[in-house]
Amino acid sequence: MRTLMTCVLTLSASLLLSACASAGPRGGQHSRPPVAANADADGDLLQDVVDKCPQNPEDVDGFEDQDGCPELDNDRDGVPDAMDKCPNEPMVRQPGVDPSRGQGCPDDLRPPTIIDDK
Question: pLDDT band for position 31 (50/70/90)?
């Protein structure tokens, strides 16, 4: 009888300890799991540990795609790539010419060539 009682107590204590261990540090609240080494929060196929912008997906367009950050104006001419007809060639800015009339191409803002047929 004593052996049976010892087994029951041992089993009960074991189950109780197991339940407490799985409940987490705050009585039922599980702690947040650690971030996996291969996590990719923005889904751009670059792991967060090497992604310079882990919350913003890379715009894979052949321009600086390895950094993990979207480049919204590849040629840095002030015309966003989505509106730029030449996203990898900067528009040439000319003094006194309104840049808003250009479409992002190198010759957009150059003064027109006047041809004199006389």
Answer: low
